Amino acid sequence: MSPAKEAWNCRQCGRGGRDGVGLIGFVHDHDMHSRSGFLAACGEALGRDPPAGAERETEEHRTARVARVAERDADIRARAHQPGHNVFRENAIQKGRNFFFRSEIEASPETSIVGRYLAARTGFVMHAAVFGNLRLAARHGYWADADDRGNSREVHVGPAMIAPFIDPIGQVTGCHETWIDLSNGPKFRPALLDAAGVPRPTKKMQGVKQGSMIPIFGALSARRWVGGEGIENVATIAGAEAFRGDTFYFAAGDIGNLCGPADPDSAFTHPSLKKADRNGVLRSVRVQGPEPKPGVGIADAVHIPDHVTELVILADGDSEPVFTAAAMARAEKLHAHEGRGIETWWPPAGGDFADLMTG
């Protein structure tokens, strides 16, 4: 419903209207073409009974109408729990898949746009197999500034690295977009500003990220896995290890997907960080704790399969250290498994692994 436009639309069936009485009539299944149905909807909108002498629906009609509404609502609730029912979710997944599968696998690590970008960011020439996962969209549109109808405009077109998000069985659930500008170091991403001159993010994600991961190099069947938040950091370690054949290298996309949700009871007060509330009073900041939320499933965070016996988690040194330390401790507990060794590798404070290798 859009109060500003004085309009409503049902995303289940496509029906819509221009007034609140029509919306009430639709929700409660009144026959708006009958006098009794229209008056009943008006009465519900006003919180009053129809006037004396006005036509009213019979008790038989009312019982049947209430039963229809209950049956419809039960059907909607049932379908909402069926896999793939969420149309918007499925459309986002398909959009991400389309971006990835339509992108180009570049042949030369030394001369390709994505290869040159990763070499500049990591200090290493990428293994050729990396480009099956990290692909190029030579003219990739950046859409932003959605209006009140949800329509965006294309504010930038340029090369972008497109990487897939895959679920635990290897199915593509979305994609990660990184726009590239090889002339704009040290990050080598374009300077995209909004109308107020505020920098726009140069990375986006499409589809489903939570519970999925970005494969960078290696096989899912490997017994040693190395993963972190961002593609560039993980690619740096992969390069430093000469792309070990016994290792699967992956990125989670963000720290929440890497470490999973926290148990609210494990939250604690930051030892020094404070933030002003709405009244300007400085108050201590709460930190998500080191304990995983009970019942975390494979859809809530990156899933490390049981066959993995060695897991290396890469921390970001340029993130707030207390928040990051709590998150890394949570990740170690979340991904703990009998017979599995887990290590967290930290870069120097104030930087990340990519910064370390490229100076």
Walkthrough of the structure:
It is built from nine helices and 13 strands. The chain is of the alpha/beta class and 359 residues long. It has a five-stranded mixed beta sheet with strand order 7-9-8-12-13, sandwiched between helices. A hairpin with an 8-residue loop joins strand 3 and strand 4 (153-166). The two termini are 52 Å apart. Mean pLDDT is 87; it is low at 1-5.
Write the layout of secondary structure elements.
Layout: E1 8-9, E2 16-17, H1 20-27, H2 35-46, H3 59-80, H4 87-101, H5 113-122, E3 135-144, E4 153-166, E5 172-179, E6 203-207, E7 214-217, E8 224-228, H6 231-240, E9 247-251, H7 255-259, E10 268-276, E11 282-287, E12 310-314, H8 321-334, E13 341-345, H9 353-358
Parallel strand pairs: 8-9, 8-12, 12-13
Antiparallel strand pairs: 1-2, 3-4, 4-5, 5-6, 7-9, 10-11
Helix pairs in contact: 1-2
Distance, first to last CA: 52 Å
User: For the largest beta sheet, what order do the strands appear in spatially?
Assistant: 7-9-8-12-13
- Could you say which overall geometry the principal axes of the C-alpha atoms support? elongated
What portion of residues belong to β-strands? 15-25%
How do the helices and strands follow one another from N- to C-terminus? EEHHHHHEEEEEEHEHEEEHEH
Strand segment count: 13
Helix content: 25-40%
Radius of gyration: 26 Å
CATH architecture of the largest domain: 3-Layer(aba) Sandwich
| Major sheet characteristics | 5 strands, mixed
Helix-and-strand structural type? alpha/beta
Q: Which spans of ≥5 residues are poorly predicted at pLDDT below 50?
A: 1-5
